Amino acid sequence: MKKNNWKKYAVGLVSASALLLAACGGGSGSDSASSDSKNKSSDGELHISVDAGYVDYVNDIKDAFEKEHDVKIKVTERDMFEQLEALPLDGPAGNAPDVMMSAYDRVGPLGQQGHLAEVTLGNEEQYDDTDKAQVTIDDKIYAEPAVIETLVLYYNKDLVDTPPKTFADLEALSKDKKYDFEGEAGKNTGFLAKWTDFYFSYGLVAGYGGYVFGDNGTDPTDIGLNNKGAVEAITYATDWFQKVWPQGMKDITSSDAFITDQFLAGKVGAFIGGPWQAAALKEAGVNYGVSTIPTLDNGEEYQAFGGGKGWVVSNYSKNKDVAQEWLDYVTTTENQNKFYDDTNEIPANQESRMYATDQNDELTSAVIGQYKEAQPMPNIPEMAEVWTGAENLMFDAASGNKTPKESADDATKLISESIEQKYNH
Questions:
Q1: pLDDT, tens digit, 9 for 90 and up, residues 368-390
Q2: What global pTM score does this model have?
Q3: Which of the 8 DSSP states describes residue 339?
């Protein structure tokens, strides 16, 4: 999953859904996809929409399901986020698929607004508490977990002998002259992280004791992005921006490209990135390694957001029973093992995670290891205001426009006011 996409649609999904609630009768209680009635499609067809990368996988496993359930599976190729964004309109019009995939942070809002059906976890024993939290809101389950994802550390094996274990190791890289940045005296690219992006910086903030919402991400009246720990984290990051990193690292829009360009040029020892970046590095021929993110200077772990995708059922579907059967089928150990083999994406199913680990793939092992320290991304609708409000959380401090405390206070105030205005808390 490309990381920025789910933020791109966050506000649009929430606002479009809200407009449709009254007309569609969604919201307070969606129909359950689980039923005692015969699990057969009402029209003999189950419509499944997936990203291009999953079409072959679904086609490969669908035959056995079709025979068992006497149903024909229609597979549509469509970008996941486009599909989710279209659901509030396509659903009432009868044009939505029965089954699709959803990023975890979209499951809560779409379920709460009545667009997703409640489901049961047919393979519940294969999910841990973090997996379950990703697909649950108001004690209701709206997806079966399929993919786990979180940030990792990439390092250049030609430049760094062993993966850094602590942030002290990363600080040592920043003092190595071979990473000095040409054209900016005193600046160094030994270690880089896109901390102007809240998705990347949250693991640092959380590791120092900051948090988004209280009560395990469910209380939007309690915002912890300006507490003592959060300010300490921002202060630490500000030192990197002001004393170590080149100016290009402060550019919110282009720092991604700056990091990649420097790494490909052999000017970076290590950087924090997402699993979606591995393919491009491999294609470029870089001799890279992947590991978990090093331990912070305070002795705590980097607690990045845990994300990924789950299988969901449209609440407008007339085939909820057989759709539930598909969710249970596609998330079995056998089918999740195949999913990993076909896509190299990390399965949520615990047995399949063990299977994936046994394949001795560095990226797989790093994601699974880091996910143990990950925090579920809050999946309540108010999270949309955090992405907007926290955009300048690091930049304002890094640029010297504000102190770390002022930057944290202002971002928190903006988020709080936006939530109050839009959600009447």
A1: 999 999 999 998 889 999 999 99
A2: 0.86
A3: H
